[in-house]
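User: Second chain of the day. Same drill as before.
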Amino acid sequence: MTQEEISGINRVLDQHLTETGKQSTNPVEANAILAEKGILRNSKSRPGEPLRKLLKKGVFSHAFQSAGKGSHWIIPHSSNINPIVPQSDNKTNAILQKQNVSMKNDINDLKRKLEDARLKYKPDKIEYLLIAEAPPDNIERFFYYEDVRKHDYLFLAIVEALYPDQKEKFLSSGRCSHMKELILCKLKTDGFYLLDLSELPIKFLNNDLSEQLPSLVKRINDVVDKQTNIILIKATVYDAAFLYLHDKGFNIVDIKIPFPSSGRQNEFQTKFREALTCTEKFFA
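Assistant: Same format as last time:
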């Protein structure tokens, strides 16, 4: 990689940090930004991996790992010419430990908030377990939050497939939070429940989705039995999870369903309805 290319990457990421007011970014978020601008292609199976390889080569001297080798990469503004580099002295180790504890507490708080919102609409008996990729990076758009005013792609697509009249009324109401609550309650009554392969938004991940599979299996076992119909949503979820879950004995519907955005909404409707028809319980 040339110095000009490195400078170009720094300019884009610096601009992102300036515009968002963030102190730093991470490989997953940064690589997504660079890929969108056509600067550095991302990896579908391992988001952030291309940039992570450059970081490991020391291409960006201002970037560092939060607690030394093997820990999370932190990418501050390139003007930060004196980044915090982990040292072996007790004072620095104590600071890093405190930072890591704080970050862990924040992540655990986020997990609890998402799980509380999800459990509110958990059916007594789950007939259809839907597995999407991850909560949105903008967590305010979480599927189970009632007050979501825009970009509620997955919720709207599922409601269009199951209850088209309800979707029209919901949109006509200006996306009334009470009406979304009623629709979520109907999903609950009809036995639909949504989990995510990753418990946290993709921007928090340092590794690929497949490393989330053991956790997913535990979470699936906590809510369903081996006869429950499981439908995977998004190609990345299907590619990472289908064979793994099938080999574990789960009842996985073998249909790759695209995420309902970026012009693939109609394809989602076709594939999602096809998946439901395969269960011989819905649209049969």
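Confidence is low (pLDDT under 50) at residues 82-88.

User: Great, on to the next one.
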